[in-house]
Design goal:
By secondary structure, the protein is mainly α. It is built from 15 helices and two strands.
Length: 386
């Protein structure tokens, strides 16, 4: 007689008791916190320093700009936008703004062009490359005060080295401290001397990241050095060019050291011919006016101008890059169409074995006598032993 075991437990009997949930130890919790919080802790020093040295001064300057704030009397009453109105009503402010843009244009555009050309030369296979690459950084290491004082003596009106050299070639002496445009050229040369090598190293680092296979393919296609530079190097370092243009714009609109040390007085000349906006800010706060409220208003006006010009530069360079990308895509399509037409005509070999298998017509051996049969005892000279 067979005994059947029940598939269900008997009534009243229960299974094993449920296991209590395991407690998470403190070390495991600490490990989870480490995974979640450690990235924020690693990047927090930058944001802390930025909040102390960047965000707080910016907010505090905005607070000062809406108050009557004097160097001797301290904080005064709330005046709203009156400080901004007073600054915009001063003709010297507009003159300093024009001087700033003039020096910025004369320095930034040649600076970027010279830097990218110098980087292209340093990217070549030259002897003592490290020496030349470090040599272009020497002007940046020298103190800006020393550089400005030396160039100020070189561009002296009567006994300057530049006028002496111009006299050797028959050119009359130039009033580097009396002519407004000449003074802007002299100050722009100081800026270019200091920052061209620095930007050249940035461009050089970007050029060295360009794949060398592109240049090898260009050489095979017969492209020269100039064509390689404009067709390969410039498109590949487009993002670096945008970065250098924006940083040069910010630095060019904040120029102060070169203008301050260009002459003994340091106030932009007797007629304020080379007074920049930052130098005007310095004179407003620490000069005759001693008005911190207006100086803070000048700082915020300059900040807004820098943001606006930086955005314009970014949009222009982005549009140029986008148009170049569209041109590249169109040329690529045209090239593929030309290759397809050439393949159809049979003038260009297929690019891959799979394409050859699909496009080549089936081939048959030419008619003729059959080959010798397989076998070690076959003789081709006679009919014996076949």
């Amino acid at each position: 007689m067979a005994v059947l075991s029940p598939t269900q437990p008997a009534h009243g009997r229960s299974g094993p008791p449920p296991r209590p949930p395991r407690r998470v130890g403190f070390s495991q919790r600490l490990g989870r916190w480490d995974v979640k919080l450690s990235p924020y802790l690693y990047i927090s020093p930058f944001f802390i320093l930025f909040a102390i040295t960047g965000a707080f001064p910016l907010i505090y300057t905005a607070f000062v700009s809406v108050h009557e704030w004097n160097l001797l009397g301290g904080q005064g009453d709330f005046v709203g936008v009156q400080n901004y109105v007073d600054v915009l009503a001063q003709p010297i402010f507009w003159k300093s703004l024009v001087n700033t843009f003039s020096i910025f244009v004369l320095s930034s555009i040649p600076q970027v062009l010279l830097a990218i050309t110098l980087a292209a030369l340093l990217d070549q296979n030259i002897r003592s490359a490290t020496f030349w690459r470090m040599g272009v950084l020497v002007p940046y290491v020298v103190a800006p005060v020393a550089v400005s004082m030396i160039f100020g003596r070189m561009f002296a009106d009567q006994y300057g080295l530049i006028n002496e050299l111009l006299g050797l070639v028959g050119i009359d002496p130039v009033g580097w401290h009396s002519d407004r445009f000449a003074s802007h050229l002299a100050i722009a040369s100081i800026v270019n001397y200091r920052w061209t090598g620095y930007n050249a190293l940035i461009f050089l680092a970007a050029m060295q990241a360009v794949p060398r296979e592109l240049y090898e393919a260009a050489v095979i296609d017969g492209a020269g050095r100039v064509r390689q530079f404009f067709s390969i190097t410039v498109p590949q370092i487009r993002a670096t060019i945008i970065f250098v243009v924006i940083t040069s714009t910010i630095g060019g609109l904040q120029i102060f050291d070169e203008v301050r040390m260009y002459d003994p007085t340091g106030l932009g000349g007797p007629s304020r011919d080379w007074m920049t906006t930052v130098l005007y800010l310095y004179d407003t706060a620490w000069g005759n006016q001693k008005n911190f409220g207006r100086a803070a208003a000048v700082a915020w006006i300059l900040f807004v101008l820098i943001i606006a010009i930086g955005m314009v530069n970014f949009l222009i360079t982005r549009r140029i890059s986008a148009s170049e990308g569209r041109k590249t895509k169109v040329s690529g399509k045209e090239r593929r169409a030309m290759i397809a037409r050439a393949r159809t005509a049979g003038s260009v070999a297929p690019a891959s074995p799979s394409a050859a298998a699909l496009t080549a017509p089936p081939t048959t051996p030419p008619p003729g006598p059959p080959g010798p049969p397989d076998g070690p005892w076959h003789r081709t000279t006679s009919g014996e032993d076949r």
